Amino acid sequence: MSNIPIVDFSAWNSSDTSARLRVAKELVKASKEVGFVYIVNHALPDALLDEAFDWSRRFFALSQEDKFKAPHPKGWAVHRGYSWPGLEKVSQAMSEENDEERIEKLREVTDYKESYDIGSDENKDQPNQWIPEDLLPEFRVFMTRFYWECFGAASDIMRALAVGIGLDDEEHLVKRHSGHNNQLRLLHYPPIPAGTLESEAMSRMPAHTDWSSMTMLFQDDCGGLEVEDPSQPGTFIPATPVKNAIIMNVGDLLQRWSNDYLRSTNHRVGLPRLSDRFTGASRMTRERYSIPYFLAPDPTTLIECLPACTNRDNPAKYEPITQGDYNRMRASMQY
Ligand SMILES: O=C(O)CCC(=O)C(=O)O
Ligand SMILES: [Fe+2]
Predict the structure, then answer these.
(1) What is the pLDDT of residue 108?
(2) Which family does it belong to (predicted)?
(3) pLDDT tens for residues 271-303?
(4) Does domain 6-298 have CATH number 2.60.120.330?
(5) Which ligand does the CA of 239 lie closest to?
(6) Whose CA is nearest to atom 10 of ligand 1?
């Protein structure tokens, strides 16, 4: 079993003030100490999550030619549509001088995954790249609904975080997220010979932090997600799949916003954990599906130290920055 705390969210939507406060405090304690938490008894029905994974499987089962009808636009400015294995390279790098040479080096190990990114249709800066409707009828309708259902659940989590941090206004964080700047990502890690992961010739997803405000992650039963142990840097603990739980993690923006009170923790995806991870002579790993939902404030939102996270003895550590500027700084290294 892993050491990632589990928070039962059912009391959050009750009228019992002290039970609500308890949920909020538990959530913030986990976000402070580990940066990752399983949330159970949340607002998203099991059937909805099953359906999301069904659609994801159907999407990635389309032919390469069909998936290429909604390609991720070239460059880093628009993060929507289909990314084929090897296109994206996750890294911790920040944009600096001599980027080209550094990006070349980073790309030497391929991330063996494919993804499809979806946002709000009203976000004109990040136009969705839908596949033609007849290829997968109702896919767009479902994903649009799922996107907004996820935002509803995320809003509850943000309210609980605000209360747990001790902000006067429960809506403080929600008010800064209209929902139109979030990103829903379908991820598929195809089967791969275990040896190529072991020798690090390829990776599923190397260690990184998210630059969201927070992320909700859904995963299938394959396993492989690992979280850096805050008490032992460099050691990773498995985020064992818990059916229909939301794995919530704090992103870099919320860490910065909270003056490092909440922790944005390194995580990665490696070999499946389960005993049935390999098949055949070439030791093919199981394929894996996951669905992260990255929450981001609106681009003009100024990320400046939350009032409850600073005092005379603990001054603000970071300059205020808009979400847009921060995102540009990070995203330009990714594609
Ligand atoms: O696939 C996963 O479980 C993790 C994905 C992830 O960390 C990310 O997309 O940032
Ligand atoms: Fe991540």
Answers:
(1) 54
(2) Belongs to the iron/ascorbate-dependent oxidoreductase family.
(3) 887 666 777 878 888 899 999 999 999 999 999
(4) yes
(5) 1
(6) 210
